[in-house]
Structure formats: C-alpha cells, structure tokens
Here is the input.
Amino acid sequence: MLRKLLLIAFLIVASLARAADPLPSWNDTAPKKAILAFVEKVTKEGSPDFVRPEDRIATFDNDGTLWCEQPLYVQGVFALDRVKELAPQHPEWKDKAPFKFILEGNIKAALEGGDHALLELIAATHSGMSVADFEKIVTDWLAVARHPRFKQPYTQCIYVPMVELATYLRANGFKTYIVSGGGVEFMRPWTEKAYGILPGQVVGSRGKTKYELRDTGPVLMKLPAVDFIDDGPGKPVGINDQIGRRPLMAFGNSDGDIQMLEWATVNKNPGFALFVHHTDAVREYAYDRDSHIGKLDKGLDEAPKRGWTVVSMKDDWKTIFPFISSEPEK
Amino acid sequence: MLRKLLLIAFLIVASLARAADPLPSWNDTAPKKAILAFVEKVTKEGSPDFVRPEDRIATFDNDGTLWCEQPLYVQGVFALDRVKELAPQHPEWKDKAPFKFILEGNIKAALEGGDHALLELIAATHSGMSVADFEKIVTDWLAVARHPRFKQPYTQCIYVPMVELATYLRANGFKTYIVSGGGVEFMRPWTEKAYGILPGQVVGSRGKTKYELRDTGPVLMKLPAVDFIDDGPGKPVGINDQIGRRPLMAFGNSDGDIQMLEWATVNKNPGFALFVHHTDAVREYAYDRDSHIGKLDKGLDEAPKRGWTVVSMKDDWKTIFPFISSEPEK
Here is the structure.
C-alpha cells in the first residue's frame, strides 16, 4: 500500500514537473535555456524587448528541421515512387532519361542529368492534375509509404523536440510558419496534423497553377512550370510575399537556411536564430559539411559570429522521434 | 429630472440594441439577413453546415469593396504623385511618354500608352528601393494625400459597413484576408490600422524582389519586374498560393472578382459570395456596367444565377464612410 501511494505520488510529481516544463524532450543545456530566455523577454509586458503577439512570427525550415530528410528528401522518394506508378501510362519512359534510369532502379544515373533531369522529373510527377487531386495523391502515398530505415510513416519521422517548440511558441502568442524549399502543395496536406501548422502558414516552392471553371466546378490545374524556389536567398523573398514581416525567430538546419536566419536576426533586435545540427548517428543520422542533402558548412562557421544557437541532436535532445530509435544505421 | 432619467434610459437601451447588432451600419434588408444567417449556420456546433474555425476563411477585394476606388484607384494617384516628386531626378522624363504627359497634367494621354505605359509607370515608381523604404514612402504619402472630393485621407475613405463585417467575422472565428489586384506592398503598411487585417493576410499583385545582405543589414530590393497579377483568374491562384484553401465567404465589387466568388461558392457547400454594388451617387459614386474603374457587368448577370448576394450601397447601408458625406459629386 505504501509503495503504491509512493508510486502515485511520484507519478503526480513527475507529471507536474512535465507540465511546468514546456520543452520536456530537450535536455537542460544551453539551447533550451536560450530559447526559454528569449521567449520570456519578448513576451513579458513591460520588458524593453517586448513584442506584441501580432509580430511574433516564427519560421521553421521543414526538411531536416522538422522531419527527417535522410537518406533522401521525402518529396524525392515520392517523385520516384510516382514515376514507377505512372510508368504503364508512359511506355516512352523506357527509353528516356531520367525515367529509364529510375525504372531500372539506378537513381544515381537518373540524378546525373542535373537540374534538367530534376525539372523533368518534377514536371512529370507534380503537374497535369488539379491542386485538389494532387493533395489526394500525396495523402494516399503518405498512408502507405514507409521510411526505409525506421519502417515508420514519414509523418512519424518528425522531431518531437521541434514540434514541442512550435507548440510552446504558439502557446506564447507566436504564429508558426513553415518556410521550406519543399513544394507547398506537397506539405499542406499533412502539416496541420503533424505539426499543428495550417495550410496558410506553409511557405514553400511552387509550380505555376491555372484557374479553370469546369462543369464539375472550378479547379486550379498544376502546370509543368516552376513559379518560385523557396530556398537560400529565396526564403526571405517567400517570407515577405506570404508573411510580410521579418521573423522574430527562425529555425533551420542547412546552408539553404542562412539567409532566413540573417533575415530574422542581422541588424535586428530582438531576433533569434537556431540551427539543428545532425550529430546523432545512432538515433538519427550524423551529417553536416560534406553532405549532399542538408549540407551545413558555411552555416556552422556563421553561427558563432552571428550569435545563432546550434542544437546538437545527440547532446541536446532527450527524444528525437515519436517512436523509439536506437539502432545505428547499417 | 424625469426627462434626464428618460434620456439616460433611452441611451442605455440604444447602446444595448447596438451591442446586440453586430452590423449596425447595415439596414435590416436582405443582404444583412443573408450574412447573419450564413454565419450562424457555419458557426453553430452541431449544424450540418458547421465549419471549424481553422477553415473559416473570408476574402475581401480592396478597391471598391473596402475603400473608395473613384475617381481613380488610390495606388494610381500615388504613382502619379510619385512621378511629380521624382521628376527633378529624371530630367529625361520631360521628353518621354508616359512621364511627360503626367508632368503636363494630361493623364488621359499618359494612359493611352496602354499596358506598356502602365508598366513603365509602375517600374519607375514602385521599384529601385527596399521593401522597407517603400513602406515608408507609402506611409508618408498617405499622411498628406487627400481624396479630391471628400477632402479626407484615403485611409478614411473606407466603407464602415465592410469594416464592421470583417470585425464581425473575426469575432466569429473567421480569418479575414484582403485579396486585391492592388500591390501587396502598397496595402500592407496601413491595412491593420484601417481594417484590422495583418500583413500576412494581405494577398495582392507583386513585383519581384531580391534579397541582399548589406553592411547595414539584409534588405529586399524591389525590382522593376512584375511577379504576379492578383486579378480575375489570378485571384484563386493568389488565394491558393497564400492561403491554401477555398474561401468560405468572398466579397468583391467588380468583374475582376468573379473568379474569386466562383472559387468560394461554385459546387461548394457551404459557401457565400457578395458583390458591393455602387449605387449611391450622393454619398459615394454610382457606377457599374460602363465604368472604366471597377466595372461590374458580367458579375451583375452572374449573381442571381449563382445565388450571390448583391448589396446596394444606397439602399442597404445606413452609413458609408467614417465621416459624413451627403454632397453629390459636382
């Protein structure tokens, strides 16, 4: 009986401690302290750094910042799967790069075609249907696709500490946005459920669309033409187009996020920026300066000069995924 | 004493009645009833037409729907004023159309150059500075510019019933957006103060911008190139790019809004659309099918077929502006 009471008391205390800690998946190391201190100073009425809720804008990169981007960007996996799915309707693909290489399983050869191959791949898999139909294609694919290493749906391969952070910021009056190089139509179908981020708060790369009024109602058709690339110096442009203000906090993980982090912080006070550094080969992946995906090189040099926080996933995060991952990559 | 008490009682009753009426500037005619009935059915839990707050999107055209667009679009007046302001730095304009005509006060001749002249005018007055500097130019101009007929700042030439409507919708969990053919950077500096609509909820036409990191900090430079025209079939595209969902309610006043109203309503239930019809030559302006500005022709034919509400400013609005206007145009 006493043991049972002690156990109950312990559970209550633990749960209270958890309730008091808005970032329970973060270790009590410098990054967590920096985040909490910044949020306190900008939300405390009367503080010299107080920012009214309307101007509390937080922008998050997606690939590698909110969800796993290894061993290949999820949208890349999707495009490859779509080629296989659509191949029966395109007999000509058997003889045409990059499609023939993809169908032969030779991804390396497919990608050797460079930007041209990539644009052909995107056009073939991301256009020719309405925005609504594309949303269904993405949703259906995500329901069955699994991460090759973690054997989980991709929407489970999300970083719990970052989702906690976004939730914590919203609870403090922030608006949380995704600002990603990924396609906006690829993200919108699932970001609300995964991160609590609504479609209108997703900024991303875009194809052109065209409005048509059909007998069945109005549609927006996805055209095989790039409209906007939301990466590198494109990120402040995308932020300005869709949000219209410089962010108060910005979170990224690669050199493609440098300009967004500058836009949030350089010659701007208050402002906060953070890089997620992939340092955990056991629970996730370890990569930075030499990686083809999510390369973080210049950013690692810039961070200390700019006063940007760098999170080591290995040292600063108690948990990474909503599932247990403790098998190193083979 | 009794009279005084009666007066106080009257004022209390009037103020309570006003508090109970969310749209006091609207007459109790069909448009107001249609709005109230629609909002009730989509916000009432358990109603078959209930829409959760996250999906309550209301889109408002700006020129002629939220503020006065006669005798010339406000942004047009701004561009003409800028040409005069910048002329000393551009001696070559004395001999170059459309600038020479503007400087001679011959606006008709200036506009005869068509789209090319218009793009030259926009490029000369809306690019070559940072987004932040342009915001200051617009703000400074609005502080001194006055409407030629009403002698009021343009940000006072706004429609009280529509501002009430936007406020009422936000109080009912809606997100209110502007979706305008006007320039997004021209609107963002003042829409929060005038309408309660934040920069991130302003969708509009855009010029291209370019990110640069300077010694003084990062800037977004406005380039002399059109990026997107948010008019006609462009409105559903702009809505999709920035909001990512079809609107639940849409409000416009001209044929350029038809596609937005279709996007909110056609083969979609629930959905609500409304045209503001400019019928009041005494308090504002009367124009529709033959107007060069804010032409409402096809829209007037479409409205009854589509079940769209048409507001007659003369008959359905008690008040138009925040100031008293009762002198007909001379």
In short: The first helix of chain B runs from residue 2 to 20. The mean pLDDT of chain B is 94. The radius of gyration of chain B is 21 Å.
